Amino acid sequence: MNCCHPCHAGVSGIRDILLWVLILCALGSCSGDSNIVWTESEIGLIGSLSLSAFPPLPPDPSNAVAQSPLAAELGLKLFNDKRLSINGEIACSSCHQPDRQFTDGLQVARAIGTSRRNTPSIIGTAWSPWLYWDGRKDSQWAQALAPLEDPAEHGGNRMQLIRVLYEDDDYRQGYAQLFGPLPELDDSTRFPPQASPMGNEAQIASWARMSNEDQDLVSRIFANMGKMIAAWERTVMPPRTRFDAYADAVVRGDDIDSEQLFSSDEKAGLRLYLGKARCLECHNGPLFTNNEFHNTGLLPPPGETPDLGRSRVLEEVRSDPFNCLGPYSDAVAAQCLELRYMRTGEELIGAHRTPSLRNLGKTAPYMHKGQMATLSQVLDHYNRAPLALVGHNEAEPLGLSRSELQQLEAFLRTLDATGALP
Amino acid sequence: MMKFLLNLIANIFLILSLLPGHVQAHGSVVDEGDLCVINIGFYRAHFKIFQPRTSEQTEFCEDLPDTGESIFVMEYLHNELGNVPIEFRILRDVTGLGRFAQLSDVQAIEDIEAATVFLQKARVEPGVFTVLHQFEGEGDFLGLVTARHPETDQLYSAVFPFHVGSADWGYLPLFALLVLLAQTGYLYMLKGWRPFSVGKGHTQDRAYTRVLMLLPVFFLLGAADSQPGFWVSESGMYRVSMQSQVNPLPLNQIHSWILNLQTAEGLPVENATLELDGGMPAHNHGLATAPVVTANLGNGDYQVEGLRFHMQGDWVMTLTLTIGTSTDKIIIPVSI
């Protein structure tokens, strides 16, 4: 009897504890909680990230055929056309591979040669005022032209490239409809077989022998080629993801759907994303990017000095003949707001454009040089926010625990497109 | 215990200040505490060295712990450096002078090319200068940086001796000994000597922190003083209201504003020259664009074009007004 009393008390104690645990869990305050209650402001932020909040496709006044279905159709054909290279083996799609969300899975691009940076996706670039990691182009069409003449990429030259349009019936007829007939490019006295202002010595010399009018004519045809590619690229939208379905359910106030769509870790990760982890500051809007330039203190790959990024191209952007204010743009000066009010200054030293976080599962390795193979390396980097080798790292240490980093990663995985979704 | 520690720190500083300058600074590279600076004649640049493969983002001022990949960075404190050719050379220290080597010693080297292990020929680098060298072995080296005068052909040089490889103790043993002696002396005479009161320092610190914490409150009170929709200038003479082309203020979209400038009495100010810039104080960065006041629309209305906010949160816009010879400032806080 003497021993029974304490024994009995012990059992009852445990039962009480279990009961309390159950009550607390029901109230949603025990660990492994799946019942995050979003505040009004969080719901607003979650909604702002959903594809349902996508603003309408912004116009591109510098490209007169931006909305033309014929231009887009020809643009897709050009995007996949390997004749647009010096050896007939490289198309845009060689590096911007559709099944990898238009990236190539490599640290830095490899085509005719090895490129300087990681291949960025083309998805959603219609919303970006600047293209490339350093933003050295200010439109999709101007960007599309540069790799064609880059010796490390397509290795082509302006004269050879536009002849592909001339020698293909589809292109020639379509071009005539969109821009007027092509000139007689087989007149070799006016149009040498290989010539470009950017090419090798022989090509530059051939280009210099052409009349100013013919140089301008060829550059205009070349620019129009870019405008057709851009007309198609504008139509490339990010696929809907589990996150979008969840965000829409949260905005609707549909608790049942939102419970089924996100695990407790994913919700906790989303809360960190919006708050403590400070991801939203740069990765905002439905594309999860502000398309702006930031220095985040990344190490250069072995054997390389730090990439100076945006600060290095400001002059190039201004003097680019294919920019919004240039002779091949269809915009009037008043429409070139981004170029006219372009920012300069020390903040841009070592700064690169914020990439989208959609489909990270298919776009590794990460960063402008593909320095990081995994998402956890990326998160660890931002958690530590080390000193920048050049310029100033805008990020600050976050002090996230390992489990928080895992939750954040779990959330980021919900931005991968995975087939049919509600 | 606290006093002991304070005295220890005081001793360290005392001895550091008594030691000759070249302990902290070898040649033309000077460790200014939070900044390592190279002096090339009258030019100055923030100087730092990284060994990314072995020490990641750790910044070194001169001596390097490891051999292998080393990145030398000069961020100009003198803008003109971005317009002149800069040559960067690393030599094996054949002078035998180590940390005491100076420019004249380098100039006295007979065959400078033979001693050179790295040479970046003169080149113009806007903004920041970087070079990379793989150190094959440990040892003493000399850095030689040469830059030309922007107008004349005058050359300016900087020399910095440094050591590569396993930690060079240098003056550390001597330094430690001096600190130990000073500290022992202090302990010996501790009874009866009270150099300063710890508590007082604390109070001052706390008061200082409190003032700092109150600053935003003053700022908000100042803003609350003005009429709704208006922000008042620093002098109190002018006020401005703002109308955005897009409402609410959009994220990541370039747009324009109309600013209406008035005197404190509400009369339109039509003859002002305005400049608008802004940033996020919490994140220590500016706007994504460089907005410009493009039109004076009359009646105190001014058009500003080229505004784009690339982050959600609190922004602080600064409007600088010039009227005749006087200037004034108006702070416009906005939230995205």
CATH class of the largest domain in chain B: Mainly Beta
> What form of chain B results from the Cα inertia axes?
elongated
Order of helices and strands of chain B: HEEEHEEEHHEEEEHHEEEEEEEEE
Give the rounded overall mean pLDDT of chain B.
82
CATH class of the largest domain in chain A: Mainly Alpha
Radius of gyration of chain A: 27 Å
Summarize the largest interface: chains and residue counts: A-B, 43 and 39 residues
Poorly predicted spans of chain B:
18-24, 193-205, 211-226
Structural class of chain A: mainly alpha
User: Would you give the CATH topology of the largest domain in chain B?
Assistant: Immunoglobulin-like
Count of the domains of chain B:
2
State the major sheet of chain A.
2 strands, antiparallel
The fraction of residues in strands of chain B falls at: 35-45%
**Tally of discrete structural domains of chain A:** 2
Summary of the model, kept short:
With 422 residues, chain A is mainly α.
Overview of the molecule:
The complex is a heterodimer of chains A (422) and B (336). By secondary structure, chain A is mainly alpha-helical. Chain A has helices at residues 4-26, 40-49, 69-79, 92-95, 140-149, 158-167, 169-179, 201-209, 212-233, 242-252, 255-261, 264-274, 314-319, 337-340, 360-363, 375-384, 402-413, and strands at 293-294, 352-353. Chain A folds into 2 domains: 40-56 and 240-309 and 349-413, Cytochrome c-like domain (Cytochrome Bc1 Complex, Chain D, domain 2); 69-233, Cytochrome c-like domain (Cytochrome Bc1 Complex, Chain D, domain 2, Orthogonal Bundle). The radius of gyration of chain A is 27 Å and the shape is elongated. By secondary structure, chain B is α+β, with helices and mostly antiparallel strands. In chain B, a hairpin with a 2-residue loop joins strand 16 and strand 17 (301-307). In chain B, helix 1 (2-18) packs across helix 5 (172-188). At the A-B interface, helix 14 of A face strand 5, strand 8 and strand 15 of B.
